[in-house]
Amino acid sequence: MYNNITFVNEDGIGILTINRPKVLNALNQATMLEIEQVLTDIKADDTLKALIITGAGEKSFVAGADIAEMSSLSAIEGRAWAQLSQAVFAKIENLPLPVIGAINGFALGGGCELAMACDIRIAAVNAKFAQPEVSLGITAGFGGTQRLPRLVGKGRAKEMLFTGAMIDAAEAYRIGLVNEVVEAEQLMEAAHKMVAKITKNAPLAVRLTKDAVNTGIELDLTSAIAYEAEVFGLCFATEDQKEGMAAFLGKRNAEFKAK
Ligand code: DAK
């Protein structure tokens, strides 16, 4: 069905793999459109509890936007390409599911930006991160100038964005770009473990928490805190809140229904 990605639903956990290993999973427009399509399907599929995004092969998560395809774009086409990709990455960021990036190698340029659109990043020890766009005569265009400083702070972000230098997984962990670093063979297992730690909780509460974090971080603190109160209040309209608290008081495990 897809030529540049694969998608499987493994017992409610979606695994989206960027699948162009010959070019280290570089993102061309066809790939981006396929990602957009699969995200529409994922959003509509209420059997899915979480999504893991990774790259095919052992060497690369995504080595960036496809430089060969990008090299001949006009200014108008370049803007359209950035707008398409920004919309796709925003769709990932706003999916009503936890999204884990399993970073299995190079995460460069658009690949680092794709990783940053995920909620949580787990890196294999061989992962490498960079925003090398300035070495190609362009700026980061898929959200990197905005999501990187929000994740690691302005100073570190500017260093990465100005120098284009690659950092390894340990450094990415140190600066807060990734949540965890694991042996390459254990990457998918670690991603599944993270998913399990999240999905044992009330799904609607997790979804509302994601919304509160994503929405609130763009607001001033007073408005963000007010938004949090609205989200918190909404939880009391769910069956899961009643079940979660009854289970605690009854000293038993909760059985959440996402209702
Ligand atoms: N695009 C196209 N092909 C790529 C690629 C890429 N990003 N990265 C690797 N490849 C291809 C190589 O050309 C090579 O193809 P063949 O020569 O075999 O045909 C194949 O993948 C294997 O790569 P290498 O032979 O180079 O493998 P090495 O292990 O020697 O090196 C590397 C791995 C990841 C260090 C190296 O491939 C590399 O430096 N790749 C480029 C990384 C890079 O600069 N990525 C950032 C891309 S820029 C915007 C829109 C978009 C963006 C910005 C703005 N606007 C419209 C405003 C986003 C930009 C980017 O993502």
From TrEMBL:
Under the heading InterPro entries, the entry gives: ClpP/crotonase-like_dom_sf, Enoyl-CoA_hyd/isom_CS, Enoyl-CoA_hydra/iso, Enoyl-CoA_hydra_C
The record's listing under CDD domains reads: crotonase-like
Q: Which GO terms describe its molecular function?
A: hydro-lyase activity
One Pfam family here: ECH_1
Q: Which UniProt keywords apply?
A: Lyase
Superkingdom as given in the UniProt entry: Bacteria
What the entry lists under SUPFAM superfamilies is as follows: ClpP/crotonase (SSF52096)
Biological process GO terms, please? fatty acid beta-oxidation
Q: Which family does it belong to?
A: Belongs to the enoyl-CoA hydratase/isomerase family.
Q: What is this protein called?
A: Enoyl-CoA hydratase/isomerase family protein
Q: Which organism is it from?
A: Candidatus Avacidaminococcus intestinavium
